[in-house]
Amino acid sequence: NLADAIATLQEAINLDPRNAQAYNNLGIARFDSNNFEEAAQAYRKALELSPQFAEAYNNLGNALRRCGDQEGAIDAYQNALTIREFYPEAYNNLGTLLREQGKIEQAEHALRKAIRQNPRYVDAYNNLATLLFGEGNEVEALRQLTEALKLAPSDKRSLTLTARIQQRRANFAAAEQACRLVLNEDPENVEALTVLGIVMHELDRYEDAIVLLGKAVELAPRNSEALNYYGVALKSVGRLEEARDQILKGIDLNPNMYGAYANLNDLVDFSKEKELFDRIDAIMESAGNSQNEFL
Known about the structure:
Layout: H1 2-15, H2 20-32, H3 36-49, H4 54-66, H5 70-83, H6 88-100, H7 104-117, H8 122-134, H9 138-151, H10 156-168, H11 172-185, H12 190-202, H13 206-219, H14 224-236, H15 240-253, H16 258-262, H17 274-286
Helix pairs in contact: 1-2, 2-3, 2-4, 3-4, 4-5, 4-6, 5-6, 6-7, 6-8, 7-8, 8-9, 8-10, 9-10, 10-11, 10-12, 11-12, 12-13, 12-14, 13-14, 14-15
């Protein structure tokens, strides 16, 4: 019980106000309670009492990141690594944040450093694979995922990312196998249901795709990817009104899902829906993509 843990830690601090470890532990408990600003305050107090406390710096970085202070988080991770050079968790955290900021080369360096320091660090392999996939290096991403799966054959994140990459490469049997391994353990895994639904659609197994994607939408009605592909599958069997509704729901949730607009072909008469046309045109123009054929 986190509330009890926080109360106990506060009592320990009252008895020993200079206990840096107790403040760090209090920060962890507050972080786990989603009280990120209070967690940051506790970590800062730990560092005030113990300025060389590398773990508190790493934890502070995590809290600041959740508070939206990315630059403060980077400073905290770097301080942790200045104090403790061998710290794969801090390198992993730094790498994922740098990737979010688009600093790809620096992010890759940090993630590879995390793996060199801990060759059994599955999360770091997954994060590096995610970065590489995003940069179009699918072969190297798969190599990293293979290493992760050697260490943790049932890791859901490794398997679903493998499935996504194999689906992109049209290796549908491998993509299906990875998804089914996840679903055997977790039948309500929305990402695996979605990717497997996409695979079934690519194989022209439209009814199977509808079942899988419909279940994904039922479990996660605000998942824009599942809504979009559910609409695509419905469109393929002629259920046009339903298809239109699902794709538009996905676009409402994620207006930057540009491929979904093309999926509205044959579903929307843009000459009769000027508001929707203007909305799509503005989004495409802002993306430098206003000449899309379907517009």
